[in-house]
Amino acid sequence: MNTNLFNIVLLSIFLTLGSCNLYAQDIKNKTNTIPSQKPKTNTSTTPDNKATTAIIAKTETDTIKKDSVQPKVFLEGKVKYNAEGYKKIQQKKKLITLYDKAELYYQDIELKSGIIVMNYEKDEVYAGRIKDSTGKYTQFPNFKQGENVIEPDSIRFNFKTKKALIWNSRTNQGEFNVKAAITKKENDSVYFLKNARFTTSEDVDNPEYYFRTSRVKFVPGKKVVTGLTNLVIVGVPTPIALPFAYFPMSKETRVSGILLPTYNDSNNRGFSLQNGGYYFALSDNYDLTVLGDYYTNGSYAMRFESSYAKRYKYRGNLNFRFENLINSERGYPDYSKQNIYNLQWSHSKDSKGSPNSSFTASVNMGSSKYFQQSINQANIGSNLNNTLSSSVSYSKTFEGNVSSRLSLSATHSQNTQTSEINMTLPDLQYSVDRIYPFVGKNGVKKGVFKNINLLYNLVGKNSFVTNDSLFFKPQMFDDAKIGLQHSIPLSTNFKLFKYFSGSASANYQEVWYIKTIQKNYNADQGQVVTTTVNGFDAFRTYNFSSSLGTTIYGTFNFGDDKKIKSIRHVMRPAITYGYTPSFEKYFDTYASDASGKMATYTRFESGIFGAPGNSNSNRIGFNMSNTFEAKVTDKDSTKVEPKKIMLLNNLNISTNYDLNADGVNTLAWDPVRVSGGTQFFDNKLNMNFGATLDPYAIDNAGRRINTYNINNDGSLFRMTSANLTMNYSVSSKKDEKDKKDKNTQSQRNGGRNDDLFGRNTIDPTGGKSQFDEEEDEGEDVITEFFASKLPWDMTFAYSLTYGNNNRESKIIGNSIMISANTSLTPKWKAGVSTGYDFVQNGVTYTQLRFERDLLSWRMDFNWQPFGNNANWSFFIGIKSGILSDIKYDKRSASNR
Questions:
Q1: What is the maximum span of the chain, computed from C-alpha positions, in angstroms?
Q2: For a designed S-S bond to 430, which of 153, 458, 670, 830 qualifies (C-beta 3.0 to 4.6 A apart)?
Q3: What is the C-alpha separation between 166 and 184, in angstroms, rounded?
């Protein structure tokens, strides 16, 4: 039986898209022999404005008869689509039209647009924008395939070949925003762009800058290769152009690449290129940066920087810097050549990986004059560092009934002014936890007897003092001091008369040396000769000490109607006693001159743990600590309870009395030491002070004599020294007291963590701003001069030192230092670090800092106007790390 094919197709469409709006079409009647078995077509219908799903499968026929033309397979999966306006099907043209907030989903493809037209015969889809009631284009297409998102004006896409034509596409690739007039999608991994622009600006349609190119090959997530590329700034083409350009677009957080150098010039080293090199992204766990500097007079420098990390194990970084410095030209009288270096290593171990052991390292060592003489501008700001210090340590805890702990460390301290280096390599410490031998099974520690406890400590050191020029050379170990110290402290504590806390302790020590000395008078040389004796030797000492203290509270009430309601004074007096016997058995005699005059010495006197004493020590110590608090009426009238404020958080007074003093060689009383500290202005201003008060007078030679100062027509005490320091830090930010670590690299170099001594200039390879604090999120005061937020911070420090040891009565040190940073406008920032020395009558290290935020760009200017290292630098460049090499960096001639 013959049937009109149009009726069957129409019926199928109704069953498939029952809720869609259908439009009639003129079609010629066709007749065909219909197979005995009907094609199986899965359909589903949904109400209007619901997503519609269509699955078109292959046509099946029976074994009797087949059509001469095989039916076409449409797509390989479900197609879901929806539209708020209407859905229109044109069977003759094989088109489905979706209008107003149209959506189409197929496999990993998501397409949203004002209008979508799908041709299911050609397996193509077209999407474009539509006009609103005002005639303005709206509902731009949003095409998403996998992680790639494109927002064009219109798009044409083929489901089978995955090819596409895109007009005015906008897409984001890593740090880049890309816009192209025409984009041809060749496949999932290759795009060809025509008349494209690349920028890191957020507004790709109106960027403050972009790179314009006519032809581009774009591989998402990997690279961009362009033809002739021109830099356009604020819509104005610049003469900066390249015949071709390559931009890496890897999704990896670290990508290997070239680091372009910075041009510089020097008064005595010629022209230079600084901080050029290569970054190696070796793996996810570690990397390597190799940088170099070169000067036309032959000076050069190398820097090797590596960071490493392993989750739940460890993390750290290693930096090594070497510079070969040549001053002037060979043959001139001021010609010189030297090598300087610096090594920095930081390592920390995650406690989760091994809770019973730890390994840490903080190393900063090298040439003492490295930061003062370095030609690399990145080190400016660290040239005032006076000390380099290092520490590497490993520790392990051994669990058991009685736990113990082993620690191995190496320490290093280097004075950059004297070039003296003190180093301990290694430092061994082993200790056994406290043992209470007389505690019963109930574990109660009550009373003098049951509180008796003992420890065991072992300390081993190999220490030496050397000079910068001998560092890491065999000679540095010639005068090494090696020794082991065993100690067993025994102690207990108790209560006395309910209000007094007492303690008593005894300590036994045994010291082992492998080197001792011997002194003899050499008649031929006419002097005493000290000879080193190699071999094991030891001495043993013991001592006893005790203490008794209490706490006294005093309150002075002034009345509830007074502003100051009461003052509370807490005193903690303590008296200590210590006794160490004489160990004369370890002393020998020698002739000190040709007359045979005898002197005493101990063969252990040059040991690292000291030597035993040949006279007993019998001393009483006095100490009193004080705190003063006040209760005042709270400024907030809603508060019922008075406010507590600290007047003095510590006021300490201490001295000692020698019971064995003979009044000739030794005096009974030690000078009284007074120290204290307090805070003002909501704890923002910290003030600390100290003074040394001597009860004895001095003679004309400045020596202390056994005569009290008051009996020598003086005061009760003679002030021999005093000091006062104040530190004040304030900011418009409410959490100012939590602000810290503003100058991390300077601190790592051995300097301060604030910017009182200036900031290190930015690392040209880092792209980070020197104003690295976060923008203020809180409310700032709007001043009468500037109707906008004005974030600022200020750090202030003052130091005063007084000396009067020999009646000189003069100010030894008196200086003030100030650092301030502010935002002059939302885009302009400024900072200054300076100070004044009132003793030397001169301005201290001064640095002026300015920065301009240019949206996608950054510009800053740094100026150090005074001193031997006076310099200035100007920088402008793109913020984005991927384009950090596009910059202009000009620095003044260095005087170093």
A1: 148
A2: 458
A3: 6
